[in-house]
Design a protein that fits this description.
By secondary structure, this protein is mainly α. The longest helix is centred in the first third of the chain and has 46 residues. The protein contains 35 helices and no strands. It has 4 domains: 202 residues, Serine Threonine Protein Phosphatase 5, Tetratricopeptide repeat, CATH 1.25.40; 185 residues, Alpha Horseshoe (Serine Threonine Protein Phosphatase 5, Tetratricopeptide repeat), CATH 1.25.40.10; 63 residues, no CATH class; 134 residues, Lysozyme, CATH 1.10.530. It is 69% helix and 0% strand. Helix 2 packs antiparallel against helix 3, helix 10 packs antiparallel against helix 11 and helix 29 packs across helix 35.
Length: 654
């Protein structure tokens, strides 16, 4: 009887345990589904500016939902919009003092501190200080410096040493803001507060203010404060500011003076910028470079000028000598890797394969992962093939594809490995939509859920530093050009690239207008045309170049008119279909005139058919690689590589 009783009690315990687990799962699932439903309804109210109703509906999001913190945040925003600041503070305060580790905490505390400052709550200072301590690298910490400066001044006594100390603390706060965010929202306001203090400013302080004015486009005001600094420390800022004011002669004067006497203590970034500005003032680029080269500089910038000079040399023997001198003079400089690569490729083109191989081994050992690495590795494969080391050649090609999969040379390596598949292995794209770039989030999928609910403003606020998410938001708002550029820049910053099925690649290479391209492609490969559109205009149908090229495919008006008359097309150059149709027809004409080769047609699309025909007669080459590496125009050479790279990437992603 006792054994039966124990068995019965065990069943009861198991049942209760299963019931508890089931109830927990049900209530959690129910809370989550109700949270999504209520949040969605409330967000529609919010977007319709019905803040009273939105406040009530956000309040219906259950406590068990992961959307509770965003709902409280939205309630606070609603209360703020209704002028109920104390109520908004209460909602933010619930988030700040919750046990959550959500990314919504910093902005909540910052917004709360702002409202407390507005209603003269003395605890605002405490929260601004806490933000700086807890989130020191955030934008909210930087902005808190500005508000702390204001609070110091507002609470300072009218006179005496305590006033002086408060002013000094405020000065530090305002300077901290300007230093960290010279082009920030409160930069100019911080400067104005510093000026009101009437304190003696150091040379560094004046330079800091000048840089902030410069960043905000206030060049005349920047000049006033630069004049209060020493030229030795500020010459590059003087030069850049004069260029912005349109004073080319003064800009050139400061550039030459600074490069001769003060460049040693100036950052490479600033030195290179003033050099580029200087060169741009000459009608011919090479004249500006020659003038700088004649200064015989030995300080910062000398290697950059020498490198630019070598890039302008056309004749191969002189080019080789130039790069050899540059490499030997600056073996560990910023341009030594590229100099060594140019020596390597020169030897390859001279068919001195063993000499080239020796330089290639040196480059791979000394510079294992630089911009020229995939090119060196690829041509090491070609050298191995020339020397009949076929297995070694294939290993090099595979290494390029595996290590640098998103490069032009990966495309070329693939061609050499699988020549039977043809020059253009991809013929059409599969439809894959651009979606939120992450399948999961580090924040309990909170950002993913908000993205799914189309709460773009909050996602944007929570992910300010994630360029892929910023790109996706721009895409959703149909700012396609900004989206593509943001994603491209973000991907370039990644040392290790993700696999081709990663959702972020679709933002870098979206398929805008591909439906039109595929419809009007004629005898062309549509992916090549899509690649040309991306590289020419980044999908901006209203793009216009400095020389007058217009539209998605950047056609010159004369070229467009010629195609229009021949094929009876619409006359509006910016209409997507008309522009792409004309571009496709123009590309077809180039291709037919140049042996039906995409390589030559792409080269002519940028460099002109006359130039390509001229290069046919002047360049000595045995294959496509030797032709591309010898294209005399750096812009055209890079353009060809970018278009084929983009073609390759589209094929792999789609």
């Amino acid at each position: 009887m006792r054994r039966s009783r124990k068995k019965y009690d065990l069943y009861i315990v198991i049942f209760l345990a299963l019931f508890t687990v089931g109830y927990f799962v049900y209530s959690h699932t129910s809370a989550e589904s109700r949270g999504v439903e209520n949040y969605s309804v409330a967000l529609d109210d919010y977007k319709a500016s019905d803040y009273e109703k939105a406040y009530q509906d956000f309040g219906k999001v259950p406590s068990g939902s992961t959307l509770k913190a965003p709902a409280l945040f939205r309630q606070a925003r609603c209360a703020t919009n209704m002028g109920k600041k104390e109520l908004a503070i209460k909602k933010y305060n619930r988030i700040v003092h919750s046990n959550s580790k959500s990314s919504i905490l910093p902005i909540s505390e910052y917004n709360m501190a702002n409202l407390m400052y507005e209603i003269k709550d003395k605890d605002a200072k405490k929260h601004f200080k806490r933000i700086i301590k807890k989130y020191p690298t955030s934008d909210y910490a930087i902005a808190s410096e500005y508000y702390l400066g204001l609070i110091e001044l507002e609470r300072a006594p009218k006179e005496g040493k305590r006033l002086e100390k408060a002013q000094q603390r405020a000065l530090i706060n305002f300077k901290n803001y300007i230093e960290k965010a010279p082009d920030g929202r409160y930069a100019i306001a911080s400067i104005e507060e510093i000026v009101k203090l009437g304190l003696n400013l150091s040379n560094y302080d004046n330079l800091l203010i000048a840089k902030a004015y410069y960043k905000n486009g206030e060049y005349e005001k920047a000049k006033l404060y630069l004049n209060k600094t020493t030229l030795a420390e500020s010459w590059s800022d003087f030069a850049k500011n004069e260029y912005k004011l349109g004073n080319k002669e003064k800009g050139n004067y400061y550039t030459e003076l600074g490069l001769k006497n003060h460049a040693m203590n100036t950052s490479n970034e600033d030195v290179y910028e003033v050099i580029d500005n200087y060169i741009s003032t000459f009608p011919l680029r090479k004249d500006g470079i020659s003038k700088l080269a004649s200064l015989n500089l030995t300080s910062n910038g000398a290697d950059y000028i020498a490198y630019l000079n070598c890039n302008e040399v056309v004749e191969n023997n002189f080019k080789e000598a130039c790069y050899r001198t540059l490499y030997e003079k600056y073996p560990n400089g910023q341009f030594s890797a590229d100099s060594l690569y140019n020596l390597f490729i020169t030897k390859y083109l001279q068919k001195k394969y063993l000499d080239a191989q020796r330089l290639g081994f040196l480059h791979m050992k000394k510079f294992p992962n630089v911009n020229s690495s995939p090119a060196v590795m690829y041509f090491m494969g070609k050298i191995a093939f020339k020397l009949k080391h076929y297995e070694s050649a294939n290993n090099y090609y595979k290494q390029v594809i595996n290590t640098y999969p998103d490069t032009y040379y990966a495309y070329r390596a693939n061609y050499n490995l699988y020549k039977d598949d043809g020059v253009l292995p991809f013929l059409e794209l599969n439809d894959k939509p651009v979606v939120f770039p992450y399948k999961k989030s580090l924040d309990n999928n909170l950002v993913v859920k908000l993205a799914y609910l189309k709460d773009y403003d909050l996602v944007e606020e929570l992910c300010k530093k994630d360029k892929f998410i910023q790109s996706w938001i721009a895409y959703e708002k149909e700012n396609y050009t900004i989206s593509a550029v943001l994603a491209r820049n973000a991907m370039e910053e990644m040392e290790v690239k993700p696999s081709f099925d990663d959702l972020r690649w679709r933002l870098v290479y979206p398929t805008h207008y591909y439906d039109i391209v595929d419809r009007v492609k004629g005898e062309n490969n549509p992916i090549i045309l899509e690649a040309i559109i991306k590289e020419e205009s980044h999908f901006n149908q209203f793009a216009k170049s400095a020389v007058g090229a217009v539209g998605l495919m950047q056609l010159m008006p004369a070229t467009y008119n010629e195609v229009v008359q021949k094929h009876n097309l619409p006359t509006n150059l910016n209409l997507e279909t008309a522009n792409i149709t004309a571009g496709s027809l123009y590309y077809t004409s180039l291709k037919r005139a140049l042996g039906n080769k995409d390589l030559y047609a792409i080269t002519a699309y940028n460099g002109g058919i006359g130039s390509v025909n001229n290069w046919f007669s002047k360049l000595i080459y045995n294959d496509a690689d030797e032709f591309v590496e010898q294209i005399p125009y750096p812009e055209t050479k890079n353009y060809v590589k970018k278009v084929f790279r983009t073609y390759w990437m589209y094929g792999n992603i789609y």
